[in-house]
Specification:
The chain is α/β, with parallel strands linked by helices. It contains nine helices and six strands; from the N terminus they run H-E-H-H-E-H-E-H-E-H-H-E-E-H-H. The longest helix is centred in the middle third of the chain and has 24 residues. Bound molecules: 3-methylbut-3-enyl trihydrogen diphosphate (2 copies) and magnesium ion. One 3-methylbut-3-enyl trihydrogen diphosphate binds next to strand 2. The site of one 3-methylbut-3-enyl trihydrogen diphosphate (IPE) has 11 residues, from strand 2.
Length: 253
């Protein structure tokens, strides 16, 4: 493929996070129900999971359902939960074949039993896979995650397990749902909205942000490759000067 040829395989992000947005608008534009857009969005998930696996990306986090999405009409919420179950059931063989390991972040207990059972099973089945780590953010919001972490830290301080002086960036990370994963270097949002919508606020501190007008159901490997090419043209400075980065360009910053 034209794009994959010019991607520098040595400078790929380890972790890509995606806000999969625009299913509803995509469907409406076609005179269809929003739920049709969610169904079509599953095809994009499959394609992008494969695309990341092919490139050797280690972590892909997909924002699939936010804490705030519970406030949508019940029919849409139910359809999304059902879609989650049928998709996991259908895709599990493909995940196994592609050596993908499934992880979940978010308020797992808030999900319906049938979803939790399906997800637990899929996590177990893929637990020994060593390729792409696919992290689904479900009933997830960053504020929820940080508040929960703060509460657990406070409990550990209260019980004497932890001293307040020990609370640093690394320790705080360990209390987040994303503790096992490195921070994303690249965050993609589809469908033309320029916002983060309560997604990985702490972890995205130095991520490169990429926004595309393409609606999620139309997002294909080619678009992923465009985002990666764009990412590779950026200079990640981490608060330093451009000169410092260029002198140290042979070192890992
Ligand atoms: C993203 O598409 C999927 C979820 C949030 C579950 P939307 O459903 O937000 O689609 P738009 O943004 O209304 O077009
Ligand atoms: C963010 O999209 C959540 C997911 C993609 C799951 P939303 O469509 O819910 O975000 P807002 O409401 O436009 O900010
Ligand atoms: Mg949306």
């Amino acid at each position: 493929m034209e794009f994959s040829q010019s991607i520098d395989r040595d400078r790929l992000p380890r972790h890509i996070a995606i806000i999969m947005d625009g299913n509803g608008r995509w469907a409406k534009e076609r005179g269809e129900d929003r739920v049709y857009g969610h169904h079509e969005g599953v095809l994009s998930v499959r394609e992008i999971v494969n695309g990341c696996a092919e490139l050797g990306i280690s972590y892909l986090t997909l924002y699939a359902f936010s804490t705030e999405n519970w406030n949508r009409p019940a029919a849409e919420v139910n359809a999304l939960m059902e879609l989650l179950v049928t998709t996991i059931r259908k895709e599990i063989e493909e995940l196994k074949k592609n050596n993908v390991r499934l992880h979940i972040i978010g308020d797992f207990d808030s999900l319906p039993d049938v979803c939790r059972n399906e997800l637990n099973e899929a996590k177990e089945i893929t637990a020994d896979n060593t390729g792409l780590n696919l992290v689904l953010a479900l009933s997830y919001s960053s504020r929820w995650e940080m508040l929960q972490a703060s509460r657990r830290i406070a409990e550990d301080v209260k019980s004497g397990k932890l001293m307040p002086e020990q609370i640093d960036d690394e320790l705080f990370h360990q209390y987040l749902n994303t503790a096992p994963f490195p921070d994303p270097e690249l965050m993609i949002r589809t469908s033309g909205e320029y916002r983060i919508s309560n997604f990985l606020l702490y972890q995205l501190a130095y991520a490169e942000l990429y926004f595309t007008p393409v609606h999620w159901p139309e997002f294909r490997k080619q678009h992923l490759h465009e985002a990666l090419l764009n990412y590779q043209q950026r200079e990640r400075r981490f608060g330093k000067t451009s000169e410092q980065i260029q002198t140290n360009s042979h070192q890992h910053v």
